[in-house]
Amino acid sequence: MPDQSLPEAPTPVTRTGARTPEDPAPASVPADESAERAASAESPGKDLTRRRLLGAAGASGLVLGVAGAAVGYAAAPAQATPLSSVGAGQAMFHVKHQPGITQGLQARGHLVAFDLAAGAGRKEAAALLRRWSETARLLMAGEAAAHGDTDVARDAGPSSLTVTFGFGNSFFTRTGLEKERPVALDPLPAFSSDHLDASRSNGDLWVQIGADDALVAFHALRAIQKDAGGAAKVRWQMNGFNRTPGATAHPMTARNLMGQMDGTRNPKPAEADFDQRIFVPADSGKDPAWMANGSYAVVRRIRMLLDDWEKLSLKAQEQVIGRRKADGAALSGGTETTEMDLEKTDANGDLVVPINAHARITRPDQNGGAAMLRRPFSYHDGIDPDGAPDAGLLFVCWQADPLRGFVTVQRKLDRGDALSQYIRHESSGLFAVPGGAAKGEYVGQRLLEA
User: Fold this and answer.
1) Residue 137 confidence class, pLDDT cut points 50, 70, 90
2) Catalytic residues, which ones?
3) What is the DSSP string of 320-386?
């Protein structure tokens, strides 16, 4: 992950409808943005605000971390921080890779897919992405939307808001850009755990919204929906959540609704081959040029059959996963980060980590090195008529090649994963997410104006 720097505190926005948090805590900014932000930090008033903030943090005995910055890797929550400063976290819009991929897990998320309206094509799609990009840039900076802001987030800071845009397979036919459609967007194969609802799958366009405040996330969702106007209509929408940054005594790998730590073996940005596995290189021989620095997102709504799962004993649950529930350590011993010993046996000669344990099957070294960056949200959509909770995981994973990443691992899971009887894949989507927009550009411009 890029180094993080501590910029000036954001200046309160004064135009009508803008959000004006008082004395926000310092926001995290990628290193490639820090020089530009530092150049604007010459105002004595701004410097005083930062000094007051740091002094207040010291007086209260709290260590004010880089709010909103990811710690370790994307499956971990943002750095532990006083809740009063959560709103000050800020992600940048104009970056090499779109926001919402390597940032820490956010407390609230919305996934929404759109289909272009009848008669809308490349021209309308370009205008829509231009509107969406400008709205995302403003809202991520803690400002109001340019037109018709609802004031829902008026009192909040940026709250680490990210807005991410992607294109589905059907988008290229609708816009006459079939020659630019990546081979990697070929439809995913069917899997044995699939019980897919076509009306909640795929889509021409996909938007991922995440924030550490529910109102900020909802505000962005409404702005994006309103910006669609007559150019596109919502195909499906899903709402999710994660633990709020600062809710634990120290940063931890997230837990899912089964109570298990989820994402222990996620690839880490500090690893030498991270970019190679997660992002499309600029000189890729198989991807179109407009996908440089982009990634492919697989989105799955995975229902957890919690009534069945919760009937299992703790030991049985741990055998299904292959890790201890308390601390995420492999059943072969050590801590959460200790390498799993796949050959270790117990006194009876049985494998300590069962042959069908989920953590064993999904290991990259058991799948030809296949890796994907998991960045999910949990969801709960109420109770079914039979009393069963409609709850589970909005699974989002990122990779440079979905055939080598998600498909390889899911095929392996299909052949004998112990977890499969406690989950059900109910919707699916695959989207091409281009690289970040440079200043003066909108997301997807290199595709739509090629």
Assistant:
1) very high
2) 262
3) HHTB-TTT--BTTSS-TTSPP-TT-B-TTS-BSS-TT-HHHHT-GGGTTT---EE--EEEEEEE-TT
